[in-house]
C-alpha cells in the first residue's frame, strides 16, 4: 500500500537514488508530496521586530507601538508563518476539525525556534471546556518531543476566543492563573511562551504580565502564525 500525503491525500511517489538503494538504509517516506512541501515552506521577508508580523519593513508595527504605550514592557514574538492562506486552512483542519496527525507538518519548524537550553518552555493552555471539545491542546501537540512546563491554567470563558471580536479580545483581563506547584521552578527563570496565533497580542501579554509578577526574569514567545 502506498503512503499518502498528509495534506492532499495523494499517493507519495518515492524517487530513490541507486546510491540510497545500495546503502541498505531504511526508507522513511515523507509526510508531504513535493507540491505540498512547497506550501509549507515559511516565507522569507521583513517582519515586525516585536510581534513577528510579516510586512514591508522591519520596523515596529502600529499594534506594537500601541502595546508599548499600554504596557511599557516589550514582548518579542517569533512567528513562523503569516496567518492567511495555508495557515488558516491548516489550523481549521488541525485545531477545530481535530485532525491530530497534522501536527507533524509544522512541529519541526516550531522546535527549531525553541533551542535556547536555559529557557522554560510554557505552552499557552486551553480551558477544560475546549479540551473536552477538541480532545487535545493544539500547542501541546507540537511539543510532544520538547520538555515543557504546565505553568499556566486557563480560566473558564463565556465565549471562546476565536468567536470574540478584536475589541473583546483586547478587553480580556487575567485569562490565566498560575500553577503553584511550579512556582519555585519559575523563580529567576527565562521563559518562552508558545501559542498557535498572535492576533491582538492580548493573550501573550497577559501571560507575560502574570509570569513576570511571579518571579520570572524574562519572557519571549513563539507562535506558529502572526
Descriptive notes:
This protein has a single domain (63-225), classed as Rossmann fold, CATH 3.40.50. It has helices spanning 18-23, 34-39, 62-71, 86-96, 107-111, 128-134, 138-142, 166-170, 183-186, 202-212, and strands at residues 77-81, 119-123, 152-154, 176-178, 190-197, 218-225. The strands form 2 sheets. The chain has a 4-stranded parallel β-sheet with strand order 1-6-5-2. 27% of the residues are buried. The chain is globular and about 60 Å long. The chain contains 10 helices and 6 strands, in the order αααβααβααβαβαβαβ. The model has no long low-confidence stretch (mean pLDDT 91).
Give me the secondary-structure topology.
Elements: H1 18-23, H2 34-39, H3 62-71, E1 77-81, H4 86-96, H5 107-111, E2 119-123, H6 128-134, H7 138-142, E3 152-154, H8 166-170, E4 176-178, H9 183-186, E5 190-197, H10 202-212, E6 218-225
Parallel strand pairs: 1-6, 2-5, 5-6
Antiparallel strand pairs: 3-4
Query: What is the overall number of helices?
Result: 10
Helix/strand order, N-terminal first: HHHEHHEHHEHEHEHE
Q: Termini separation (Å)?
A: 38 Å
Largest sheet: 4 strands, parallel
Q: Determine and state the CATH class.
A: Alpha Beta
Based on the model shown, name its key terms:
226 residues, alpha/beta, Rossmann fold, 10 helices, 6 strands
What is this structure, in a nutshell?
With 226 residues, this protein is of the alpha/beta class.
